[in-house]
């Protein structure tokens, strides 16, 4: 008899931004235009609108603004604002797929590659996220995102990212325990059980199996072999390939904890990585930022609001705190 485990018992995503009632995109567009018209800018109005509308509502406001005033909201914001506040407001006004495509392009353009950004975006993304990002990237830059990733990475890391950028992860929410055990056996035979590593087995399983399936594989691996699958990955891989595979496993186990760690890294130590902070806040506020806040406090015994407040100031700080709810 098939032994199935329903995965829906694991996590319920809770956002921090919810749909505004009695939403009127034209009224919001007019209010934004008025706030930026003439001398000075009413930043409070920008925050009250852009930080309190969902992703779809913000896109509607953008369309209404262009229809009403003949230019993109992004252009208007850039002409009036500066610094972290400008970057956050612009990120909020863009369609998410376009914003994330720009983030990927920034990570692989110029001198060097920001592997951490590529890992975060591609290893944690859903199929829909990645497919929409691919389409936005093609429209923005005139060629596939995959081409640029291939041109800027190499080896096992390149193979992993190319697998992920296809957006072909299994989305079946029901887990067959016997299939999970079969994958557990394949992973053991491809790594710990032999001299050398069959990297393609790790890539094919970790890049294509469903998140609930991977959770079961991690459980079965430790039960069968006495050490974690993460330990096996760390023993068999190195550098960015290792980081990427571990990120996939972390997201399968607890995506909220993964992003809590990313946020902590962005705001701890000397200086703030505002780019990472903005990207995570904007991409997760409509999805699960409330869960991430809870994980942050559980892991670090401090509220995310307190740490963000201590690491930012002015309108930028007020906007970040508004997104945190």
TrEMBL record:
Transmembrane annotation, as ranges: none
Source organism superkingdom: Eukaryota
Gene Ontology molecular function: any one: calcium ion binding
Species assigned in the record: Daphnia pulex
Coiled-coil stretches: none
Alphabetical list of InterPro entries matching this protein: Annexin, Annexin_repeat, Annexin_repeat_CS, Annexin_sf
Organismal lineage: Eukaryota, Metazoa, Ecdysozoa, Arthropoda, Crustacea
Pfam families xref list: Annexin
Official protein name in the record: Annexin
Alphabetical list of PANTHER family matching this protein: ANNEXIN (PTHR10502), ANNEXIN B11 (PTHR10502:SF102)
Comment field on protein domains: A pair of annexin repeats may form one binding site for calcium and phospholipid.
A GO cellular-component term linked to this record: vesicle membrane
Keywords from the UniProt entry: Annexin, Calcium, Calcium/phospholipid-binding, Repeat
SUPFAM superfamilies xrefs: Annexin
Similarity comment: Belongs to the annexin family.
